[in-house]
């Protein structure tokens, strides 16, 4: 999303159609990154605190290989102000990241509190425990019990890219909520004041849109993950770089539910710090 653009409907970051286009582009990004990660083995050693203790613990770091690589990557990204952008959220605590070395950019005030939510711990958990084992199954089966191909740098780099894309996709839920809230504040405010999370979730949930999303993902993953024959059609017998059902499962079981949690939690705090007169003005602004 272009956060420095004016509030023209075609460039407005809170225009729901623009947000949807961003989410559709992220579908492609996530699928291709999963394909990249799936070429390496599971390498479970990368995800345990003791896996690289001999290398990392001597410098005082107590986490896993992936956590160390995330921190090292995000330190560099923080310096170039990646996490100043309202749609970017680091996996490393912000208190452990340096200030940018570049001058700050002036972003328009888009969200009520862009730093109030960070569900990256949940993303990291489901990615490590459910997604990586599933998408690396083919390589793992070929290696047998070893389950390890030694490509820790390459696999870890792909993990970080996957995690960052999934995080951006899920935290975009705050922009969805803000857009829907501004379109009809009076529909949301009573359920925020109550508070009523179930009612808020009903307001933001579109079953038909979710069904279309999952169907589109299955088709994309089937094409992107296949080897193409001379005629440009997928060769079913050649196997797939990543199973389409795993991409669909990632969205159905993890990305969509966690995005809804972000959207609802954002709405529950949307009125924080507002006076009663400001809330009354919002009620009349539909």
Please provide a written account of the structure.
The longest helix has 25 residues. Helix 7 crosses helix 8. The chain has one domain: Chorismate mutase, AroQ class superfamily, eukaryotic (Chorismate Mutase, subunit A, Orthogonal Bundle), CATH 1.10.590. The chain is 57% helix and 0% strand. It is globular. The protein is an all-alpha fold. Pathway: Metabolic intermediate biosynthesis; prephenate biosynthesis; prephenate from chorismate: step 1/1. InterPro entries: Chorismate_II_sf, Chorismate_mutase_AroQ_euk, CM_AroQ_sf_eucaryotic, CM_II_prokaryot.
Low-confidence stretches: none
Principal-axis shape: globular
Name of the CATH superfamily: Chorismate mutase, AroQ class superfamily, eukaryotic
Tell me, what is the CATH class? Mainly Alpha
Radius of gyration from the CA trace? 21 Å
Nearest-integer average pLDDT: 90
What is the number of helical segments per DSSP (H or I, 4+ residues)? 12
CATH-defined architecture: Orthogonal Bundle
Q: Give the end-to-end Cα distance, rounded to a whole number of Å.
A: 25 Å
The major sheet is characterized as: none
CATH topology: Chorismate Mutase, subunit A
């Amino acid at each position: 999303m272009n956060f420095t653009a004016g509030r023209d409907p075609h460039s407005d970051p809170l225009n729901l159609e623009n947000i949807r286009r961003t989410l559709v582009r992220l579908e492609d990004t996530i699928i291709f990154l999963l394909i990249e990660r799936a070429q390496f083995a599971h390498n479970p050693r990368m995800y345990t605190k003791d896996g690289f203790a001999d290398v990392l613990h001597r410098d005082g770091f107590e986490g896993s290989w992936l956590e160390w690589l995330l921190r090292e990557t995000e330190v560099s990204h923080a310096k170039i102000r990646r996490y100043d952008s309202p749609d970017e959220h680091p996996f490393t605590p912000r208190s452990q990241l340096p200030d940018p070395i570049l001058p700050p950019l002036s972003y328009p005030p888009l969200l009520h509190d862009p730093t109030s939510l960070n569900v990256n711990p949940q993303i990291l958990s489901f990615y490590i425990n459910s997604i990586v084992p599933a998408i690396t199954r083919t390589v793992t089966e070929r290696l047998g019990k070893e389950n390890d191909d030694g490509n820790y740098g390459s696999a870890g780099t792909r993990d970080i890219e996957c995690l960052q894309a999934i995080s951006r996709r899920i935290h975009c839920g705050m922009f969805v909520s803000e857009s829907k809230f501004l379109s009809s504040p009076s529909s949301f405010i009573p359920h925020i004041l109550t508070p009523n999370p179930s009612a808020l979730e009903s307001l933001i949930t579109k079953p038909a849109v979710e069904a279309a999303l999952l169907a589109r993902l299955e088709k994309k993953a089937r094409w992107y993950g296949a080897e193409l024959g001379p005629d440009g059609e997928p060769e079913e017998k050649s196997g797939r770089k990543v199973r389409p059902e795993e991409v669909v499962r990632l969205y159905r079981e993890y990305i969509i539910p966690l995005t809804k949690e972000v959207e609802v939690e954002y709405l529950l705090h949307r009125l924080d710090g507002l006076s009663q007169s400001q809330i009354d003005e919002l009620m009349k602004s539909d």
